[in-house]
Design goal:
Blueprint: E1 3-14, E2 17-28, E3 32-36, H1 43-50, E4 58-63, E5 66-67, E6 75-79, H2 90-96, H3 106-119, H4 135-149, E7 153-157, H5 165-182, E8 185-189, H6 193-199, E9 202-206, E10 213-218, H7 219-223, H8 235-252
Parallel strand pairs: 3-8, 3-9, 6-7, 7-8
Antiparallel strand pairs: 1-2, 1-4, 4-5, 9-10
Helix pairs in contact: 2-4, 3-4, 6-8
Bound molecules: adenosine-5'-triphosphate (ATP) and magnesium ion (MG).
Residues 43-44, 157 line the site of magnesium ion (MG).
Length: 256
């Protein structure tokens, strides 16, 4: 398969600090990739460069062979902190993601908003304001907004970090479902090894700063691509989880 999102020999320096050092990574279209690595190793920095929010000191990031040098609606970012607008309803927040879509009519925007509201299970909360819904729901709003905007690539930086365990588990299943239905390319950062194994087609483990790829694990080959809550009970799931935990302990110490 052809490489779609490419980190090409990336170096990133902030003053005296070398955050990323000659890192290369190629991601296939529709692949669900999870980044794992110690705190401060440069994961967010890599994501910001993929989002066009920051530029590499050397090397480049390409999407479909085109160099990324600015934000673009094809790449949506969902971060840990909720980024919904309090003065807009849930519906309004999702529609806001399409504000630059001059190619869509008002009716098409409304239809898309409804489609994504349903997809993330918020159709009953369309008229609610963000401060009246739970954190998990706000996170779903952010995901729906990204999808409605038409992003082909979702860059998710610890998006479930602040959620309680049950909500988190439910959103993991939903995200996997959205991924398979919508054929998106996803990069997802987490510190949670089980979350990583459950979600990923592929896990990239980074070293301590400067970020270097220490392992590239094909999870899809071992767990398949159909994930349900029961996937977590498979012996293969435990085996992978232990394998990844081991790698992280060995390669990065216990700085997670
Ligand atoms: N704008 C900036 N200016 C200076 N230093 C920065 C800047 N952004 C990031 N850094 C430094 O780069 C390093 C990597 O940061 P980054 O946020 O990418 O790590 P991370 O892997 O996302 O960590 P975490 O897991 O804690 O989120 C850190 O040492 C950080 O202090
Ligand atoms: Mg980070």
């Amino acid at each position: 398969m052809q490489d779609y999102l490419q980190f090409d020999n990336i170096t990133k320096v902030f003053g005296p600090v070398n955050v990323v050092s000659r890192t290369s990574l190629a991601i296939e279209r529709t692949q669900f990739v999870v980044f794992l690595g110690p705190s401060g190793c440069g994961k967010t920095t890599l994501m910001r460069m993929a989002g066009g929010l920051d530029t590499p000191t050397e090397g480049c990031v390409r999407l479909d062979r085109e160099i990324i040098d600015k934000p673009d609606r094809r790449r949506g970012m969902v971060f840990q902190s909720y980024s919904s607008f309090p003065w807009l309803t849930v519906e309004g927040n999702i529609e806001f993601g399409m504000r630059y879509r001059t190619d869509l009519t008002k009716e098409e925007k409304t239809a898309r908003t409804r489609h994504y509201l349903r997809l993330v299970g918020l159709e009953d909360f369309a008229g609610a304001y963000p401060n009246r819904i739970s954190g998990g729901m706000r996170q779903r709003v952010a995901i729906a907004r990204s999808l409605a905007a038409g992003s082909d690539v979702l860059l998710m930086d610890e998006p479930f970090g602040a959620l309680d365990a049950l909500t988190r588990e439910r959103l993991q299943v939903e995200l996997r479902r959205i991924h398979s239905r919508e054929k998106k390319t996803i990069i997802f950062v987490t510190h949670d090894v089980e979350e990583a194994v459950f979600l990923a087609d592929r896990i990239i483990v980074f070293s301590r700063r400067p970020a270097r790829v220490v392992a590239d694990i094909d999870v899809a080959a071992r767990l398949g691509t159909d994930r349900t809550l029961e996937s977590r009970e498979l012996p293969e799931f435990f085996a992978l989880r232990n394998h990844v935990l081991h790698l992280i302990r060995n390669e990065t110490g216990d700085m997670m």
